[in-house]
Amino acid sequence: MATQSFKARENGNEYQNGKEEGNTCPRSPDSDMFRSTNNIKVYVRIRPLSKDEYARGETSCVHIARDEHSVKVVEQGYGYNTTTRSFQFDGCVGPAAEQHEVMQTVEMKKLLDKVLEGYSSTVMACGQTGSGKTFTMSGREEGMHDKKGYEDCWGDDGLIARSAIYLFEAIKARSFNKDQTKPYTLRASYFEIYCEQVNDLLRLDAAPRDVKWSSRDGFYVENLLLVDCDTLEDVFSVLNEGGKNRKVGSHELNKDSSRSHCIMTLHVDSLCDITGDGHPIVRYGRMLFVDLAGSERLKKSKSSGEMLKETGSINRSLFTLGKVISALSEGKKGDVVPYRESMLTKLLMESLGGNSLALMIACVSSAASAVDETLSTLHYATCAKNIVNAPSINMDARDKIMMKLQKEIAHLREENKMLRTKLGLSLDGDLTFPEAIQSVSPMATKHRRQTRNIPPVGLEIKCPTELKGLEKYFGKEFGEEASGLSTLANFQDVFPQQSARGSLTLESLRCMPSQGDSFGSSQQGPTLQAYSEDDAWGDNCEKTTDGTSTPCVLSEPRTIRASCEPNSFLGMYRGSVNVKPKGLQQFSRRNRVSVDHLGGSRARLKKGYPRRIGKQDAFQGSITVNQAAFIKKLLDLNISPVDGMVNF
Ligand SMILES: Nc1ncnc2c1ncn2[C@@H]1O[C@H](COP(=O)(O)OP(=O)(O)OP(=O)(O)O)[C@@H](O)[C@H]1O
After folding, report:
1. Which residue windows are coiled coil (predicted)?
2. 134 known ligand binder
3. Which residue from 47, 297, 300 has its CB within 8 A of the most atoms of ligand 1, so it is best to mutate?
4. Which residue's CA lies nearest to atom 10 of ligand 1?
5. What does the pLDDT look like over 359-392, one tens digit per residue?
6. Which of 435, 564, 621, 627 is packed most tightly, with the most Cβ within 10 A?
């Protein structure tokens, strides 16, 4: 026989003697590196040669590589030609492995721990008929389930019995030291899908069950018997009863061949105070054990009569399952995935591409005569590796919303704490009023953001009343109409300490009068208005008083040193409005002075305001002056800045 050279490439097909065949999985085998923890985990279990196969002189064609993650399948061609294919999985279990090793290799306990936390988990055995699916899930029938505890576990016990034992042990450990309330309850159900019909294996006398759809549970079997299992023996009774009632037939490839897909479910409801607020919520964990009927070739199984019909139905549903797996592995979602084409895929919707954790065990025979079926199973399993699920804890919708809100509150609290720390505020207690305005004012925040790292165009600070003065100064532009400006100047309560933070300052003024203009009248030359009560600029101004305002007309060229940081923040204010808001709006727009109202009248000031606004319409906010607008205003007024200070 020619020496076989294994040129294994990870997770792909490897070819020899020029023979090449594509992988049936639509995705590149290299996509392995992109697999996440939510991908379906896929393991391979190789069944040893049976006595009959030995007797026939069969050889083994499936080998596990040293890394224990890939299997190589050697296919005999014509003459001495052989083709070797290599597939990579999450793990491989060899023919000599015992049942407890399977439990370990596939990390069953991790899945079960998730069930205790409220997740749904699925373990599914697939493969051709006689490849060891039922053996893997349930063990050998004759030795089944009459034990008292883990130590008594029989060597041949399958995953279901071992998982039940583990769950009871874990529940016992978790409940230790708790009060009298029972935090976990366990129930079991067992049904089969036989020729597209769902039978409750725990109530054989009952009519076939309907499969219904609900937005909460997806597809589910209606009126299924759920047996309360207080002890391990209760679970074993369910297993024995269900196992006894399964449809089994005998054909050439397996004397105890399952003629139906069987799903045994352990429902683990747990009461848990997740948020620690003394309101426990119920989480609905579920562990599904799916023992699929095996695919079979009639030529080999030689099924006939009723069995022929069963085989047709089994192969059809497995074909649909293949289509679903293939669609999901291509990343398709929603209605494009043909879940509804068979009862099996409907009921596995959560497990394949849904909210469940899932694990697939591809069972294969090591016999060379079964190489075609083995390859087909491995291709199938390779596709399944690409399926991504989105596991989530099962709980009532109300509890879900409550948890979401609680999470949001915790997040906001955290954010609030962080912001208070940044603002240098104490971490407890309520905010004082000015503090509150300061910390919530979007303009103040915006200002801080905008002026950070931006140097001012010039600076000369020496005017304590710049806020009031400047408001009047801008206000003059609109005369009486702009009564909003006067209002601004008449604030009942301006925070001087806030205005001191404003970086828009005026110290002195150099006016360049227009040619031919004479001074002495407020109508000629640049006119500035100073705040009437505080004459910071008054020394050099000629005051004319008209009753309502105090125009300041400059009699000689003076110096104005003007500086303005970008979007200078002038200060906070509050007051009541009894002015025509229109003026305020103009003030705001034309001079690019933004008035940020935080109080009740903000909306009205913005649009659809009434002509009269009562005194009760108190408002508060911050004022910001745009640098460019400020400079333009100076130029409009024919005011030059001091040489070298501001270069316009
Ligand atoms: N790993 C194994 N070690 C020993 N015996 C095994 C192993 N796997 C399977 N067998 C034996 O092989 C036979 C067929 O196994 P099993 O009934 O589990 O196959 P199956 O895949 O469920 O077949 P079907 O799809 O027809 O129901 C059984 O007698 C079983 O005890």
Report:
1. 395-422
2. yes
3. 47
4. 132
5. 999 999 999 988 989 999 999 899 999 899 999 8
6. 564
